[in-house]
Structures are given as structure tokens and as C-alpha cells.
Design goal:
single chain; alpha+beta; nine-stranded mixed beta sheet; two-stranded antiparallel sheet; 10 helices
């Protein structure tokens, strides 16, 4: 039976690495908060589990008067429009995406750029046409007849849809070589409204890109991850609790404090649905790659599935070092997990989850494969 393998993962981050307390100070000033409100905001940032985030914008680490994107006014008015934000996206997305793609392919020296058959680009933080996919073909020197697909505006779980597509392509033709590139510039969409949803979103999201190579056969000399099974679930009660809308001043995230409860409510059914027809039980799984939507989401999953923080160590590490990068995040977690694998773990199952608007819950079972 044909199958597919996640063979290599690359990542890239913008140069502006910002400590979480420094971003909290920026946000408190931007919202014009009194000292009491600012203390509460800083506490939210301390409890987030995030130490640093990256941004294509230097402004989050600067004082007013030195901004290069936001206006140098006390209230940041006139606030940047969607058009202004998309111009930055178009300028910054390509170099970051290309860096992630090249980082991925350096780990697969047997795969030449001109042998890539399919390119899947993923993003929910910017769009234009001709788009990032075509620019990547030209910038990387891919063949002009490479088959291109874009997965846009699906939020944090979108990398799962890209992996499903890559899996279907490789199962149909095992000689396919599929490159997935997920690029998210979340910090372009800062909103200075004081609703809880916006305050929470501003505390979590950063910028980054990840690339994954999916092949029809395992590559020698490194740990591969067989894409064994996928399962998708929906929690319709959460449609209003996690959403993503284009508005006049950027893309607005709805992210309520109820999301961890909703994830906990649906995660066991999602897991059982994935494993129901497979010779794998939850107790057999020792490796996890869970999208760190936030610290409370990871804790909710641990409580419901009986996991420990050590089981989630790769997710906590990514959350601590870069925050939530929307669709790219789970690929960062998978990379950290993949790096830790040893040859004696050949055949071991890996369980991965991601969550997004809908409320959509995605699950994936992988198997470690050493060739």
C-alpha cells in the first residue's frame, strides 16, 4: 500500500526578537492604559508561557518617535489600513518563506530544487496575486511547471490541510516531491481595541515561516514521519469564540477565553475518532506534537487525555521561544520532536493536534520511520 513521509522540516524567523515584557509595555502605551490596567496586562503576558516573539516590524521594541510602521503619535493614529499592512506582507513574506524552504531542503540533499513536483503555500495573514507561490517558484528556481496550490485564511490548523493534500498527491504518485511552505506575519494585524479578544490575541501571536518536504518514500539517513492517518472534528459551539475577519484596519482575530474549555470538550472524541480504525491506542503513544495555541490550551489537553507537561515539552518549548505562529506553529513543534528521535524508536506512533476557526479540531497520526 502506498503511503507518504514527512521527510524534512525547515523554519525561519524575522530578525526582530522581542521579549514578552517589552511587547507588553508597547501594548499598554498603545492602549493608553492607566497603571492599574497596565499591571493586569503585564500579568496576562507573564502567564502566557511565552518568553519571546519575533516580528517583521521593529516597532514593538521601540519607543514612540522611533516607529517605522505605526504613526509616531500618542494614539498611533491614523491607524494603518489593510492596504498598508498588505504592502509590508508582500515585502517581507517572500524572504522569510524562501529561508524556511531552503532550510528544509538543506536537510534533504538528495532532493534537488528542480525535482520538486508540487508547491503548497499556506497563509492566513496576507494575500495578493500573482502571489507568494509564484514568487517562491521564481526566487527558489523551481521548475515553471511545478504544480501550485494555495491554502489561505484557514488559521492555525491550515498546515494539516496542506499535509493532507501532500499525502494524497504522494499516494497517487509515489514519485511526487511536495514542498509545503507556511508563512505567517501575525504581528501586522495588531488591533488596539480594548476588548478581551484583542488583548488576548495581541499577547500570543508572532511571525515566522516553516517548510515541510513530503515524499512518496522514506529518505535514508534521517528520521522520517509516515503520514499514517488524519481526522477532523468540529465544535460548532465555538464558532463565535475563534474567528478571523478582514476589517478596515487589518485582519481581526476573535479568540475568547472559552477556547481552552471548548478544546478540552472535543479533544477526547477527536482522538478516539482518529484511532478507532487503527491498531493504536492512546496508551501506546509516547510522542506528541500539539499546536500550542496558548498555555491554557496545552493544559486543557493534558487534563483531558492524561498527559504530562513532559509529554508536551516540544510544544511548550516552541511557545516559550516564538509564541503562536498560526499555521506554521505545529510544523515548528514537529521539527523539535523529529530532532529528538532515535533509531531504536522506528515504528513509534506520534500524535499531533491543531485547532482553528470553526471551532475546528484536527488530528494526525504519524509513525517514526528510519530507512
Amino acid at each position: 500500500m502506498t503511503t507518504s513521509y514527512l521527510s524534512a522540516i525547515g523554519t525561519a524567523l524575522p530578525v526582530h526578537r522581542l521579549p514578552q515584557p517589552q511587547i507588553a509595555d508597547f501594548m499598554a502605551r498603545a492602549h493608553g492604559m492607566e497603571e492599574g490596567e497596565a499591571r493586569k496586562l503585564r500579568a496576562l503576558y507573564r502567564l502566557s508561557g511565552i518568553g519571546y516573539r519575533h516580528s517583521v516590524l521593529p516597532d514593538y521594541g521601540r519607543q514612540p518617535g522611533a516607529f517605522t510602521f505605526f504613526p509616531n503619535t500618542p494614539d498611533l493614529e491614523p491607524f494603518p489600513t489593510v492596504g498598508a499592512r498588505m504592502r509590508v506582507y508582500r515585502r517581507e513574506a517572500l524572504p522569510l518563506a524562501a529561508e524556511a524552504a531552503l532550510d528544509c531542503l538543506r536537510q534533504a540533499p538528495e532532493v534537488a530544487l528542480n525535482t520538486i513536483t508540487h508547491l503548497i503555500s499556506v497563509s492566513c495573514t496576507g494575500m495578493y496575486a500573482p502571489g507568494l507561490d509564484i514568487e517562491l517558484v521564481q526566487h527558489l528556481g523551481l521548475r515553471p511547471d511545478v504544480q501550485r496550490t494555495c491554502v489561505n485564511f484557514m488559521g492555525c490548523y491550515a498546515a494539516f490541510n496542506a499535509l493532507k493534500l501532500a499525502d494524497a498527491i504522494c499516494r497517487a504518485n509515489p514519485r511526487s516531491r511536495v514542498l509545503i511552505v507556511s508563512t505567517e506575519l501575525c504581528t501586522l494585524h495588531f488591533q488596539k481595541r480594548a476588548e478581551e479578544d484583542h488583548l488576548l490575541a495581541n499577547a500570543l501571536f508572532g511571525d515566522g515561516a516553516a517548510a515541510a518536504l513530503v515524499l512518496g518514500e522514506p529518505a535514508p539517513g534521517r528520521p522520517n514521519l509516515e503520514l499514517a492517518a488524519f481526522h477532523c472534528g468540529l465544535e460548532p459551539d465555538g464558532m463565535a469564540d475563534m474567528a478571523w475577519h478582514v476589517n478596515d484596519f487589518g485582519f481581526e482575530m476573535t479568540l475568547s477565553s472559552y477556547v481552552p474549555r471548548l478544546v478540552r470538550q472535543g479533544i477526547r472524541q477527536l482522538t478516539e475518532g482518529l484511532l478507532r480504525h487503527l491498531p493504536v491506542r492512546l496508551a501506546d503513544v509516547q510522542h506528541f506534537a500539539i499546536h500550542p495555541g496558548g498555555r491554557r490550551i496545552l493544559e486543557a489537553i493534558e487534563q483531558e487525555l492524561g498527559l504530562s507537561p513532559a509529554d508536551n515539552r516540544h510544544a511548550y518549548q516552541v511557545l516559550r521561544e516564538v509564541g503562536n505562529l498560526s499555521s506554521a506553529t505545529v510544523l515548528f513543534v514537529l521539527r523539535e520532536m523529529q530532532r529528538s528521535l532515535q533509531a531504536e524508536e522506528d515504528g513509534a506512533p506520534v500524535l499531533s493536534f491543531a485547532f482553528g476557526p470553526g471551532l475546528t479540531l484536527e488530528a494526525m497520526l504519524l509513525r517514526v520511520k528510519f530507512q
